[in-house]
């Protein structure tokens, strides 16, 4: 099995889950900064953000997180030691525009990312930058109810133009929105919105999605104009949906479930709303309000590549008697009896990655980039400061092998950045104990710990995988 010679091996993080320094050097509040830890009912706060803003919790995991803000040199050096060719990270919009609609950017915020990119360049690591990774400024939620208001298009484009110009030549790979389809499932994180107490929440969510799609196209246009070397991608929370049985009703239900997510990428990759959108909107009583040139903007400024997260496949059935469910990346799913399950109830399905990659590539014929994939587990730090995470190595080995098989199938894939390459705060639960990284961070769910970094067994294993350009897995 041969991976492309210049295949981009690396790992992924998000500013809102690792940076900390939530109010340092002029940074404004992000959406996650009002969310408590799991023990104080983070899930309820996530779906009732207006109530959460009125409460004072005992602990906010994002406020310090793993303090990447002050540890970035140490952390990037560790990534370089593994041989990273690419580092997926995100910019914190409120670190640069504290209120989202400020006339001028916060220079201290811009300077921080100058320093981060300089550190990456020092080691020959290419940054892959997400422009909005669940990080809309909280002030825009308060003032506009986030992306439900078309005003955010202009504000987002202004922010993006600022950073595209500032980091011209330092960054060549950009993602406009993280897991853009999540706006339907977690509207607060995905769109900075509260959809409680509205007449038709579907109308609000799909209208907000349209605003993001237009904004994405405008930023794609800008990125290409500012630097023709820029490559701009979209990002999907992916995972093939299997029918529970071969009953035609189950097969059709699985197709519809996949379409709900592909809907967004259809627009970003093809440049227009898919034919099935009309019926979806009619069934949900949704009417998309468009400006005169929206369709032209979408049509003329499609993305260069498609990136996605993959943790597991999904399963659906039309039989009301089939009720056994399992957790997942926000999406609940029926439990697949043929798959293993992690400590957090997420099922693992390596072959599903190959299936998903083939499906996406067949659909769009654009290069792919696997930008999230990993296993969240409870790691134990020994007295010798070691972590024996053979379960993570097994998960990643199986998934990377299937990614290689997909490439052999004819899928063009530019790179792989496994999720949470250094332990960070879980977006959904706010936990530190749900660890994904190759690097253990001494921090617990209550904010205790030294923040010291320790290499896990998987650190050395992934170093060898990268050094062999993936060939280690096929020996």
TrEMBL record:
Pfam families: Glyco_hydro_1. InterPro entries: GH, GH_1_N_CS, Glyco_hydro_1, Glyco_hydro_1_AS. Keywords: Glycosidase, Hydrolase. This is Glycosyl hydrolase 1. PANTHER family: 6-PHOSPHO-BETA-GLUCOSIDASE, GLYCOSYL HYDROLASE. One of its GO terms (cellular component) is cytosol. It comes from the Bacteria. Belongs to the glycosyl hydrolase 1 family. One of its GO terms (molecular function) is beta-glucosidase activity. The active site is at residue 372. GO terms for biological process: carbohydrate catabolic process.
């Amino acid at each position: 099995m041969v991976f492309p010679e210049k295949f981009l091996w690396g790992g992924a993080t998000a500013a809102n889950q690792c940076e900390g320094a939530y109010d340092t050097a002029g940074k404004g509040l992000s959406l996650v900064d009002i969310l408590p830890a799991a023990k104080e009912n983070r899930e309820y706060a996530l779906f009732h953000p207006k109530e959460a803003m009125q409460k004072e919790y005992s602990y906010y995991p994002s406020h310090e997180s793993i303090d990447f803000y002050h540890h970035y040199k140490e952390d990037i050096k560790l990534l370089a030691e593994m041989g990273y060719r690419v580092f997926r990270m995100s910019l914190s919009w409120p670190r640069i525009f504290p209120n989202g609609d400020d006339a001028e950017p916060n220079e201290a915020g811009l300077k921080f990312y100058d320093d981060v990119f300089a550190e990456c360049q020092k080691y020959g690591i290419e940054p892959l930058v997400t422009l909005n990774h669940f990080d809309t400024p909280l002030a825009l939620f308060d003032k506009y109810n986030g992306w439900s208001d078309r005003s955010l298009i202009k504000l987002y484009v202004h922010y993006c133009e600022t950073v595209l110009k500032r980091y011209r030549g330092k960054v060549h790979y950009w993602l406009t929105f993280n897991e853009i389809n999540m706006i339907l499932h977690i509207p607060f994180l995905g769109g900075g919105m509260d959809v409680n107490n509205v007449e038709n929440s579907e109308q609000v969510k799909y209208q907000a999605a349209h605003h993001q799609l237009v904004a994405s196209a405008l930023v794609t246009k800008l990125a290409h104009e500012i630097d023709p070397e820029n490559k701009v991608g979209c990002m999907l929370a992916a995972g093939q949906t299997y029918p529970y049985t071969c009953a035609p009703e189950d097969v059709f239900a699985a197709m519809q479930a996949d379409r709900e997510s592909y809907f967004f990428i259809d627009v970003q990759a093809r440049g227009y709303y898919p034919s099935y959108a009309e019926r979806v909107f009619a069934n949900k009583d949704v009417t998309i309000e468009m400006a005169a040139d929206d369709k032209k903007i979408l049509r003329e400024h499609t993305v260069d590549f498609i990136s996605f997260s993959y943790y597991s496949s999904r399963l659906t059935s039309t039989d009301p008697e089939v009720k056994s469910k399992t957790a997942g990346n926000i999406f609940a799913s029926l439990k697949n009896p043929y798959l293993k399950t992690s400590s957090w109830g997420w099922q693992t399905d390596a072959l599903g990655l190959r299936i998903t990659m083939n499906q996406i590539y067949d659909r769009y014929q654009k290069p792919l980039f696997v930008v999230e994939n990993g296993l969240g587990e409870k790691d134990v730090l020994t007295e010798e400061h070691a972590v024996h995470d053979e379960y993570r190595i097994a998960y990643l080995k199986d998934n990377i092998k299937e990614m290689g098989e997909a490439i052999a199938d004819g899928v063009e894939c530019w790179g792989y950045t496994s999720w949470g390459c250094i332990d960070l705060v879980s977006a959904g639960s706010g936990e530190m104990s749900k660890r994904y990284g190759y690097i253990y961070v001494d921090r617990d769910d209550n904010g205790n710990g030294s923040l010291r970094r320790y290499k896990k067994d998987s650190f050395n294993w992934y170093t060898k995988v990268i050094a062999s350009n993936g060939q280690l897995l096929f020996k």
